[in-house]
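The material for today's practical consists of a large collection of protein records. Backbone structure tokens are a discrete shorthand for how the chain folds in space. An example says more than a description, so a record of this kind follows:
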Amino acid sequence: MLKRLCDYFEEVLGALILSIMLVVTFANVVTRYLITYPLAFTEEITISMFVWIVLLGTSIAFRRNAHLAMTFFYDLMPRSLKKLCFIISTAVSLTFFALLGWLGALQVLDEWELGVTSDALAIPTCIYSSAIPVFSAIIIIRILQAARITLREKAY
């Protein structure tokens, strides 16, 4: 059961976030047309959660090995060169998301220390920004899992 939850963590969390976005956006549309006064906070929540959804989708794509790739030249390479290119691309991806996570963590710390709050809800913006380092760490884990499987099965 726990393994199944770990395998589909991103899908479950993404469905939950998407449901919240749907309810909040629907409430905004209803209030805009019924009382002609839109809810200002809905845009803030929806935009922040959209970033979360994108990061979760990235994690899913790496886990399924379904991210975008241009493979025309890669397919023409000999197996040993394919393995080298795979290792390099995995290292570049890991470096990118490690850097994104690090910079996201610095942003969260800065927002926390400065006491930055959101415009509409006046809650700490570090709550929204904390998704960047957390989801970057999840993406790194998924990249490593996919790379391990690819190298073990020699599917590069």
About this structure: The chain has seven helices and no strands. The radius of gyration is 20 Å. The first helix runs from residue 2 to 7.
